[in-house]
Protein 1
Amino acid sequence: MTRPSAEPRGRSLVGPVVGAVLAALVGAAALVAGQADDSPGLGGLGLLVALTGVVLAVRSVRRRRSG
């Protein structure tokens, strides 16, 4: 006998969300390092990467829930 799958369509949410959360963490670390070193370029780049990670995580969850 086979167990019924928790993911009926075969798409897992773990991979995209973990990747997006890691991007957000790396961006936040770059933002903190840029501010500590008084580097506006690194701080701005870190902010962009962190926001991109958050947006990708939200998009992944919304797409998964909507269908």
Protein 2
Amino acid sequence: MRDRDRVADVTGVVSVGQYPATSGEDPAEAFSTRLGRTVTCEATDPHAFFAPLAPAMGEQAVAAVADRYRALSTQPDHSITAERSARKLLGVPPGTAGRWLADIDP
């Protein structure tokens, strides 16, 4: 079945977001494994992280995105449900940092 045929069969609500949920520690662990040395995650304030985008997006848009990331960081689990995830409905396996690293360096 082609991707476009699979999309045509999907109806109803499709959740778009993070499934499974991940944190900064997840990619750090994947990079550590891939590189054979310890890689750590250092949290960054969302407003500082997104500030360089303000000239292109506008201050209000950047603040809204940063506020959303800040709010998500306070949630113990901000994963979407698997049953209605775009990945499940379209038959695409969840991506992981480890898989991404393997795919970019065969």
Protein 3
Amino acid sequence: MENFVYTGMPARVVFGDGALARVGDELTRLGARRVLVITTPHQAADGRALAANLSAHDPSLYAGAVMHTPVDVTEQALEVVRERGVDCLVALGGGSTIGLAKAIALRTDLPQVAVPTTYAGSEMTPILGETRDGVKTTQKSMKVLPEVVIYDVGLTMTLPAGLSGTSGINAIAHCVEALYAQEANPIIAMLAEQGIAALGRALPGIALDPGDRAARSDAQYGAFLAGACLGAVGMALHHKLCHTIGGTFDLPHAETHTIVLPHALAYNAPAVPKAAATVAVALGVADAPGGLFDLAGKVGARRALRDIGMPESGIDRATDLALANPYWNPRPLERDGIRALIARAWAGEEPSVPAA
């Protein structure tokens, strides 16, 4: 056994069918008296319904969360927090909503109850990505880690099959990079392999039958494990690329992760053969990058950055940004290799494993 360091994140997780009904109890446990329910505009009706069940906690609703957590939206939400005297945040939604709650918590230190409705996994992490003037940056702070996370499979049943697929592969990305993270350890490796396996078997099933409750529950469990991985260790090239490309070109978060992941793993595979082999075993395939590319096809996801709005002229800009202030990575970042990776992802080509 090799030496390792493992840091557990102190979040409380309530997992189960019907768990949404326990939000009020968790708010009482936190001592919350005046809560702000946060959603995207699309989920405003769900937010109002939840708020209606939290009357004992004097709820308000802010339904303005958007992708990539722009700072100006955070400032608007903070006005509501101040005007209403909010003492606790309830985030109902995916990464956009949970990201906004985190951004508010960073500035106020208010407690959060996260109620994820996708498989993004950010609810389990002390990581916040924010966008200012078109540039997305990330930071780590225990202030942004939600105090309570509530997983209710019922909230994912209406998640469109296409979004389920890309959101789930986004979660797989957390597990993949956790396997070769600088802080990688056997505890997280175990969670990562289980997370990849759960999502890998669940997502094609959801694509075939969006009403498959067992597959939905499996995917939600995998997303929980993926989030725990993301929160416990640092990430590498894949996440740097996705934050850079997504924030710069305002691309959809989950789809960007889905497209980039096979190519990022292909770039790193020669340096981390054990991690690549673990991914392949978890997916039940011979080749990990190819297996991830095929999985995207099985769930009906788009596999080219050009198909989600990135211009070809952006390949060189994305390369420059990826090489600026890079994350730690198990393989040195070489400009030609990174540019080739991005170009293949832009064109939707199959991943290519370069020589070590």
Protein 4
Amino acid sequence: MNTFAALRSALRSLAANTLRSILTMLGIIIGVAAVITMVAVGQGATNRVQEQMKGLGSNIMLVLPGGVSQAGVRLGAQTRQRLTEEDATAIALEIPEVQVAAPTSRTSGQLVFGNTNWGSSIIGVNNDYLEARDWPLASGRVFDAAELSGSAKVAWIGATVARELFGDQDPVDQVIRVRNIPITVIGVLAPKGQNSMGQDQDDVVMIPLGTLRNRIWGGDATSRLKRVGAISVKVREGQDMKVVEASVKDLLRQRFKVQEGADDPFVVRNLTEILQAQEESSHVMTLLLAAVAGISLVIGGIGIMNIMLVSVTERTREIGLRMAVGARGRDILAQFLIEAVTLSVLGGAIGVALGALATWGVGHFAGWQVSLSAGAVLLAVGFSGVVGVFFGYYPARRASKLLPIQALRYE
């Protein structure tokens, strides 16, 4: 008996017991569909974290003002405004591992262009901020030195602001009103998408720090001291983020003259490390879900073995007749093994279709980011075939070891 004849005989045998074959395949179908869906969801989560890391920029840490205490009550981070532009300059100049340190301050307000208005975030920055965040301009130019030092009324706008205010028009060289201050758009930022908190990073207007302090806020003691709300620190490639973080803390403690054992008047957050931890968590969760789905495949394989043992018992006389007319033990082994593998692979194919449908449903209705890869499909189908061979071998071997006389006399 050649392989083609054995396959044809296996299909006829499975078709003769259609309902039993379907029920036998059910475990494999569910297992494969679960593997594909879980891996797609897990990979989608990992891809989302990687996109957030790209949107954030590489090797980034954020220096924020610390908290103050009143009557023994700690009010939390960013309640003590002590960071200045000079602190950012010191970090960039005195720590060789730092590529750039960009001071920023943030507020919000209404933007107006013609008859259109839009509420957005307003950030005071300098040109270093684009390098720190790996955020290029899609069009336009950067601030020049005179604009930065003279509190010029110029701005970059994000892709969302450009769409909402200008539609299909070119925003560059147009004048918008930011809190009723006329400001000229000199650049449009490249799209960034959402951050890890789900906030639209493109819904932003960036103006020089001096413009924010002196024109938007009106100028006060804080402006004269050049206070800032945060410092974005970009570390050079290949440098140890932990070492640089410690260096930044030591430098700022010296500048603020912090006594030994006292609380730091600032907070340093390693954002890349936070996102990497999220990615590792997503990876571990994917492995756990895939392991659960793999258990479903094993259970399905046990079901195949049970049904194949029943099939061997039911067809004992048929086995004896085949052997009597010249079939060898390896022919019987191949026939039953092909039946088991056919059951498993056919169940795997149906499971792939069901898993792809479930993946689409999760992405469409739940709104999750999913990623269905060919590798996951091949892994699931290949594993289902291995399950068929592994759990089908014992029943097939048992059938091949039957003696023809005893098999023909079996009732």
